[in-house]
Amino acid sequence: MKHILSVLVNDQPRVLARVSSLLGQRNFNIESISVGGSEEPGLSRMVIVTYADDRTMEQVSKQLHKLIDVIKIQDLAFDESVVRELLLVKVGANSSNRAEINSIVEPFRASIVDVGANSMMVQATGDRAKLDSLLELLRPYGIKEVARTGVTALPRSSARSKAMV
Amino acid sequence: MTSQTEMKNSPMKEKSAEMDREYTGSEILLRCLVAEGVDRVFGYPGGAVLPIYDSLYDGHVKHLLARHEQGAIHAADGYARATGKPGVVIATSGPGATNLVTGIATAMMDSIPLVCITGNVAQNLLGTDAFQEADITGITMPITKHNYLVRDVNELPRIIKEAFTIAAGGRPGPVLIDIPKDVSNAKASFYYPETVHIRGFQPTTEPHPLQIKKLHQAIAGAKKPVIIAGGGVISSGATEELVRFAEGSMIPVTTTLMGIGGFSGVHSLFLGMPGMHGTYAANHCLLGCDLLIGVGNRFDDRVTMGRIDKFAPNAKIVHIDIDPAEIGKNVDTYIPIVGDIKNVLTAANEGLPSADSSAWLQQIEQWKEKYPLQYKQDDDTLKPQWVISHLHETTHGEAIVTTDVGQHQMWVAQYYRFVHPRSLLSSGGLGTMGFGFPAAVGAQLAYPDRTVIAVTGDGGFQMTAQELAVIALEKIPVKVAVINNRNLGMVRQWQELFHGQRYSEVDIGGSPDFVKLAEAYGVKGWRAHNPEEAKQVWQEALRHPGPAVVDFWVTPHENVYPMVAAGTSLEEMIMGDED
C-alpha cells in the first residue's frame, strides 16, 4: 500500500543523508522524497512516498524516530490530504503546433513558462496521475527534458492523520 | 549573555572569572570530560588531534595509549560494559578514525555507550581530499546513535553534553564527535551546561500501567511461561528486579548471549542460553511455551533461527524494551511494553501474580536432567569445554570474562556459570574477532582488583595481539586464555557439517608460539597440553601478579553442541557428534 510520510526534521547539514541512509540500510523502498521549509524556523519538512504494508510502515516510522534529528512523523492518508507535485517539461514545438499544445495544456491548468524556436516549457502542478497523463498527451510532440519535484503534501483540515510513535 | 548577569549574583566569584577566561577547543573538550566524570580515556595520537593531546599532557584525564585504534576503542567498550559508564576514545583523522569503525559497529550492535572523539583536518581543507582526511561522520552515520561535526568552538560544550546524554540515555549506543583542527585550536569562554534538552531524543522510560495489568493477566493465565532476558536487563541494572519477577511469578529464565549474568547461572529457574547453541531445556521451553516474556532482548536470528513461523508457535509474546523499534521488528507481539527494564519490572513486581507453572517446571527439571550440556573428557587430551569449566571453578564464577567470537565464545557462554551482571563481555551482535583481549584491558582498568580473563581463540587473538605491549608496559594484570585449536574452529565446524568437510582456509597452524610472543612483549607465558598441566599453569598464571598469557593447546576438531542449523526450527537440535 502506498503511504505518505510527513517528517519534521532539524534543519541541519546532512539530515537528508541520515534519513535516506537509514531507509536504504533497513531495506525500505522510497518512491520519492522532497524536502523544504516548514512552519517552524529551524525545522524542515520531508515528504516521503513509499509502498509498504502496515508492519513495514510501523518499522519505518519507528526507525526514523530513532534519528535524533527527526522531531515528528505523520502518516498522511491519501484521500484526506492535499498531495501535489510540480512538473516542468520541455516539449518540441514550432510555430505550427504551439496553439495545439496550448490547447492541451489549458485544461490541466498548466502554463507555458518559456518559448523557444523549437521548443516550449510547460509548468504543471497536481497529483502524480494528473502529471502522468499530461506527459502522455505531450509525448507525440517530442519530450526533450523533464524535471519533477517529487510529492509534497499536507493533511486537509478535516483529516485525522495519525501521528506515529 | 544572560549567563553573565546570573554570574554577577552568584556567590562563586571565581566561576565568573573562569567564564571570562578563554580556552582553546581542546582545553574545553577536556574540561567537559572532567565535568562528565570521565577519569580515563583510550586513544592514539596523530596530526589532527595534536591540540587535544597537547591538552592531555597536563594530566587531568588519564589516557591509555593503545597500539592500534581498534585496540583503543574495544578497550573503551570493555570499560563501558564493565562499569555501565560511557567509554571515551580519541583518534586522529583519516586512518585513525576509520580504524575505529569496527569498534563503533560492535558497540552499536550491543547497545554500549561510547563517546568517540576524532580529529579532522581544518575546516578550510574539509572536502579537498586533504592529507589524512576522511568523512568519518558520513562513514559512521549508520553505525552510531548520532554523530556531530563541530563547526564552531562555541558549540563544543553543548555538543559534548548532548553526546553523553544520547550515548548513555534510553537504549545506549556510540556517539561520535568529529572536531576539525581549527575548532580545537580556536578560543572561547567555557560554560558546561548541567543538562540539555534534545527535542528529538525523549525516550519513554515509564511503562503504561494498562500494559502492566495485561502482563499480570497473561501471567495469571499461563501454564507454560518462559522469560527470555537480553542485554537490556544488564544495561538497565535490573538484575534484582528480574530475580524478584521470575521468583514471584514462578517463571523460568533463559538469557541470551548478551543477557548472560543478568540472571544468575546457578539459580534453579535458570535454563541456560537459547538458540543456535542453546541448551535443550531453553530451546524446548521456547518451543512449548504458552507465554513468552521478552525482557530487553531483540529476538535475533541466532535465537529464532530466522524461522519466525516455528518460533514459540503456541505462545503469546510479551515484549518489554526501551526501544519501541525493537518491538514487532522480528516477532509479532501480543503485549508490547515500552520502558526502561528496571522501571517496567519494578511496576510489574507490584501485585505480581504467580503462573500455574508447577507441572511445567517439573517437565523442565526432567529436560535439564536428561539433556545437560556434555562433552567427552579424557585425561590425555585437553578439551576446550574442560578448560572453560576449569576457569569457572578456579574463579568461582567471580571473574570478569571477555571473549572473542566463535567456538570458545559459545563454550564460555555454556560452561562458565556467570552469577553477576557485567561479567561476561562479548561481542554478541556484530561478532567481532579481536574484541576480547582489548576489552579485557578496559575492564581491568575499571576494576584493578578483580580477576579479568580474556578468553580468546588462536585466530581472534592475532587480530589485536599488539595490545600485549600495553598490558606489559602498564602492568595491567589481564589473564589471556588462548583456546588454541590451530583452526578457525567455528568456520571449520560449519564446513564439516554443512559443506561436506571441504575445509577451506581454516587451518591456521602457522601461528606464532604464543608463549614466546607474550615473552617478546615482556608478558609471562605458559602452555598446557593436558588437564594436569593446565591445572598447574593456570594456578601459576592466576597467582602471578602481572599480566599472563596461557596457551591452552586443546583438541583441534571439537565442535560446539548442541547446535541448531540456521534456517531450521529449534526442534531440530543436533545434540552431539554421535547423533
UniProtKB/TrEMBL annotation, chain A:
> Reaction catalysed?
2 pyruvate + H(+) = (2S)-2-acetolactate + CO2
Please name the top-level EC class of this enzyme.
transferase
The record's annotation in InterPro entries points to:
Acetalactate_synth_ssu (IPR004789), Acetolactate_synth/TF_NikR_C (IPR027271), Acetolactate_synth_ssu_C (IPR019455), ACT-like_dom_sf (IPR045865), ACT_dom (IPR002912), AHAS_ACT (IPR039557), AHAS_small-like_ACT (IPR054480)
Q: In which pathway does it act?
A: Amino-acid biosynthesis; L-isoleucine biosynthesis; L-isoleucine from 2-oxobutanoate: step 1/4; Amino-acid biosynthesis; L-valine biosynthesis; L-valine from pyruvate: step 1/4
PROSITE patterns assigned to the protein according to its UniProt record, in alphabetical order: ACT
Q: Name one GO molecular function term.
A: acetolactate synthase activity
| EC number from the UniProt entry | 2.2.1.6
Q: Which residues belong to the signal peptide in this entry?
A: none
Q: Name one Pfam family in it.
A: ALS_ss_C
Q: Domain ACT, which positions?
A: 4-78
- Which NCBIfam families does this chain map to? acolac_sm, PRK11895.1
Q: Which family does it belong to?
A: Belongs to the acetolactate synthase small subunit family.
Q: Which PANTHER family match?
A: ACETOLACTATE SYNTHASE SMALL SUBUNIT (PTHR30239), ACETOLACTATE SYNTHASE SMALL SUBUNIT 1, CHLOROPLASTIC (PTHR30239:SF0)
User: What name does UniProt use for this protein?
Assistant: Acetolactate synthase small subunit
TrEMBL record, chain B:
Record's superkingdom? Bacteria
Locate the Thiamine pyrophosphate enzyme TPP-binding domain: which residues? 404-552
- Any matching Pfam family: TPP_enzyme_N
The alphabetized list of GO BP terms reads: isoleucine biosynthetic process; L-valine biosynthetic process
According to the UniProt record, what class of enzyme is this? transferase
Q: Where is the Thiamine pyrophosphate enzyme N-terminal TPP-binding domain?
A: 24-137
Give the CC-aspect GO terms.
acetolactate synthase complex
Q: What is this protein called?
A: Acetolactate synthase
Q: Which residues form a coiled coil?
A: none
Name the PANTHER family on file. ACETOLACTATE SYNTHASE CATALYTIC SUBUNIT, MITOCHONDRIAL (PTHR18968:SF13), THIAMINE PYROPHOSPHATE ENZYMES (PTHR18968)
Q: What is its EC number?
A: 2.2.1.6
Alphabetic keyword roster: Amino-acid biosynthesis, Branched-chain amino acid biosynthesis, FAD, Flavoprotein, Magnesium, Metal-binding, Thiamine pyrophosphate, Transferase
Q: Where are the transmembrane segments?
A: none
Provide the species name.
Seinonella peptonophila
